[in-house]
Amino acid sequence: MKKSLLLPLILLALLALIFLWGVTLYPWDAALPSGESLQPPSPTHWLGTDNLGVDVFAQISAGFFRSMGIGAMTALCTFLLGGGLGITAGLAGGWVDDAIGLLIQIFLSIPQLPVMIVLGAFLGQSTWNIIWILCLFSWAPVAKVLREKTRSVCGRPYVSMARVYGGGLFYLIRTHLAGDLLPLLSVSALGVVGKAILQESSLAFLGLSDPLARSWGLMIARATQFPGIYRTNFWLWWLLSPVLAMILSTLLLRLTVQAIQLPKS
Prior knowledge:
Blueprint: H1 3-24, H2 56-92, H3 94-109, H4 112-123, H5 127-136, H6 139-154, H7 157-164, H8 169-205, H9 216-224, H10 235-238, H11 240-260
Helix pairs in contact: 1-2, 1-11, 2-3, 2-5, 2-6, 2-8, 2-11, 3-6, 4-5, 6-8, 8-9, 8-11, 9-11
């Protein structure tokens, strides 16, 4: 294993274990008041409480797994849809390649956040609606990369010879394409997770996510809407904690992806 990969993986695993403690063995619930309003951090409440007396660390821990779950579902959608369309375009060529290429360019040219906001407001406050919206705007960059890579691999002499000698589609994919495309597709899909976390938090901050969910974006929104938050020291644990958790999680994910990123051919 690369040394550059080992450190972010260890830190990400450590972060996950800390937040796992927060949703399993930590004594306070993320949805119920467990102390007085706006208590500062203490041995009892590690990151203090919010204005309703709900433990902040418990909320952040629940938000971590919610964000990772949404990111993983978005990555799976990207893997299947983006990879499938990109590989299909590269293999088929002709009008199929042109049609998928046009569709990719259309989705790449759409301003994502404004359209996400409109769709989120239209579809309603639901976690699954957020996942569908994120998937809708995550597959195109991956499809573009896989389309170009597939065309490059299919243009190699030994692949052309295999086609001439009657190699079928599944034979070509299994023997000549899978080794080049699957690692690239997996890394590209993994890279979507961090972006999906930030996008979900943005939509939750704007009130377009499930209002009952434990979301970092929702925590930040509630903290910033509290009267006089910046004239007190409440922001130090109530606002700063979810912001730092989000930054640290996405940073470690990005470092992990960069460490395993394959060199471009």
